[in-house]
Structure formats: structure tokens, C-alpha cells
């Protein structure tokens, strides 16, 4: 004989099941990942053409599920960069972007809901000359056993586009005919050769032996190249051979950049004048020895 369930029991079971269904229906689904961009900063706000602009922003996942933020950084309506990051619910991450623009004018920056801006100054190529002397040649030193003259320069506004090396020099004595010297432009490590050319000694004005004649400025055209950091100019005659070149020396400015040197790249050994010339001679003091060597070219300047 089958057992019958009382009608009150059936009603209770039905109500319980219905309550369970209502409970399930009342539970809202988890919100998907949702991203908010805050603290967007653009630095600097004004730059020269080609300079780097840095954009930083904080991205936060405001949803209840993990997700990928993959929106591009827009600059003047064009995608300039995109970083993809995975963020857990409630997590934040700071993103960094770099931008370089060469066309002058204003630029808008948009990353999702955040905006910023910067501008590029209009620029022109401006002639400039890097030098340490005051054009006051006290005397001239000959290039012989010391090997050559080494001087370093640092562009005041990188990049510096060099096109000319200027040397205040001359020739004296005899025996220089048919001989040569080397002119180098070296990178900041003093080993990497950016320019190397051999010239005849006669490139300098021939003055004869006596009486002493002051050296004159001579221009050496070099291939144009952009120099963004410290570089060296090196006039090398070869160690131990007196070739008759003499270099203008200016002692009116404290010397921080000029040295004597021996050897050819990649092995160049700067030497102090105190170790080469007698101490009773004024130019044995290296603090007074500014070689009259200059670097001429152009830099970008605001228009």
C-alpha cells in the first residue's frame, strides 16, 4: 500500500522550492571588468621638436571580475601607443608612455576617459660655435713628442649638428713638406671614431721659421652629424716626430677641457703638460692651456 503525503506537506514542499527559485533569481550577476583612468599627467607641457614627452596615468578596475585594459593612447586622434594590462577587481596600475613629435603646434592626449595636452615649439636651425678660448693666443705649442692635442665638448642644447672644426694653428720650421696629420672626432668613450681624415701639413698657413708668427684660424669641413652628448676633437701628428705644426693656446680662461695625448684610437692616453714641459715654463701649468680648437654647427632653437 502506497503512503499518501498529506496535502499540507505538498504545499510546504512547493513553497520551499518556490522560495529557493526566488532566492536564485534575486542574486544579481557579477559586474564585468570596468576601467577608470585617473591622474593623467603630461610632462613637460611644452617641448622642442623631437624632445620626449612623458604621459602617466592610473588605471583602476572598478568591476567585479578581472579583465584586460587595452585602450590605446590617442594623440591628436591617432593611436600613438598601447599597453595591455590585466587587473583584478579593485586593482590599480600606473601606466607610462613616451611621445616625440617634430611638427610644431598643439597636441591633445586622450586615454579612455582622461585627457591632457602639450605643445611643440616652432624651431629653426641656429648657427652656433662651441669654444673655450677668448681668441687670445698667448703663444703656440708645437705638436711633436706629445703626439697631439685633445679637447672635449658638450653640446649646450642637444642635439648639436656639427659641420666644421676650426683650429688656430700654423706651420714653422722646415722638414714638414709632404707630411700629414690626422683629425679625429671621437665619441664620449674616446674610442669610437665618428670622423677620421688625414690632411697635409700645408693645410695650415706656412709662416717660415723666424721670426715667430701668430697662428691663424683654419676651417676643416666635416660631414654633418648629430652629437647629443660629450665628444672629442683630436689633432694627432704621431708620437716622437716633430712636424712643424703649432697650436694656438689661450691662457685667459681656466682650462677644464684641453689635454695633450698620445696614441691613436681606440687607445688614446691623455697626458698632463706638467709631465711633458719643464716646470719653469708657463704652459707647463695645464690649468692655463686652452687649445684654440672649436666646433661649429647648428642647434635647434625656438623661433
Q: What is the gist of this entry?
A:
The protein has 303 residues and is mostly beta strands. Helices cover 7% and strands 49% of the residues. It has one helix spanning 7-26, and strands spanning 35-43, 46-47, 52-61, 67-69, 72-75, 78-82, 85-87, 92-100, 105-111, 114-120, 123-130, 139-142, 148-153, 160-171, 180-186, 193-200, 216-227, 231-236, 245-250, 258-262, 269-271, 290-291, 293-302.
Task: Describe this protein's structure.
With 303 residues, this protein is mainly β. The chain has one helix spanning 7-26; strands spanning 35-43, 46-47, 52-61, 67-69, 72-75, 78-82, 85-87, 92-100, 105-111, 114-120, 123-130, 139-142, 148-153, 160-171, 180-186, 193-200, 216-227, 231-236, 245-250, 258-262, 269-271, 290-291, 293-302. Helices cover 7% and strands 49% of the residues. Strands 11, 12, 14, 17, 19, 22 and 23 form a 7-stranded antiparallel β-sheet that branches. A 6-stranded antiparallel β-sheet has the order 16-15-18-13-20-21, with no helix packed on it. A 5-stranded mixed β-sheet has the order 2-10-9-5-6, with no helix packed on it. It is elongated. The model has no long low-confidence stretch (mean pLDDT 86).
Amino acid at each position: 500500500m502506497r503512503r499518501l503525503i498529506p496535502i499540507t506537506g505538498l504545499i510546504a514542499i512547493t513553497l520551499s522550492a518556490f522560495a529557493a527559485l526566488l532566492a536564485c533569481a534575486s542574486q544579481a550577476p557579477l559586474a564585468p571588468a570596468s576601467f577608470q583612468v585617473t591622474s593623467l599627467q603630461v610632462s613637460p607641457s611644452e617641448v622642442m621638436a623631437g624632445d620626449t614627452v612623458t604621459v602617466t596615468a592610473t588605471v583602476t578596475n572598478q568591476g567585479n571580475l578581472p579583465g584586460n585594459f587595452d585602450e590605446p593612447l590617442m594623440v591628436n586622434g591617432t593611436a600613438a601607443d598601447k599597453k595591455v594590462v590585466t587587473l583584478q577587481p579593485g586593482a590599480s596600475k600606473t601606466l607610462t608612455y613616451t611621445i616625440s613629435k617634430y611638427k610644431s603646434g598643439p597636441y591633445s592626449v586622450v586615454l579612455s576617459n582622461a585627457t591632457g595636452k602639450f605643445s611643440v615649439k616652432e624651431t629653426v636651425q641656429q648657427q652656433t660655435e662651441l669654444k673655450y678660448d677668448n681668441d687670445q693666443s698667448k703663444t703656440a705649442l708645437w705638436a711633436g713628442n706629445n703626439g697631439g692635442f685633445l679637447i672635449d665638448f658638450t653640446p649646450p642644447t642637444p642635439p648639436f649638428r656639427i659641420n666644421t672644426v676650426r683650429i688656430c694653428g700654423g706651420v714653422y720650421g722646415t722638414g714638414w713638406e709632404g707630411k700629414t696629420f690626422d683629425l679625429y672626432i671621437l665619441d664620449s668613450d674616446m674610442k669610437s671614431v665618428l670622423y677620421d681624415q688625414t690632411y697635409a701639413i700645408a693645410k695650415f698657413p706656412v709662416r717660415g721659421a723666424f721670426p715667430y708668427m701668430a697662428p691663424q684660424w683654419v676651417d676643416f669641413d666635416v660631414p654633418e652629424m648629430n652629437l647629443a652628448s660629450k665628444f672629442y676633437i683630436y689633432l694627432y701628428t704621431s708620437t716622437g716626430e716633430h712636424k712643424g705644426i703649432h697650436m694656438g693656446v689661450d691662457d685667459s680662461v681656466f682650462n677644464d677641457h684641453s689635454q695633450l695625448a698620445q696614441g691613436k684610437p681606440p687607445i688614446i692616453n691623455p697626458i698632463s703638460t706638467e709631465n711633458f714641459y719643464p716646470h719653469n715654463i708657463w704652459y707647463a701649468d695645464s690649468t692655463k692651456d686652452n687649445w684654440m680648437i672649436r666646433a661649429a654647427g647648428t642647434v635647434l632653437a625656438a623661433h
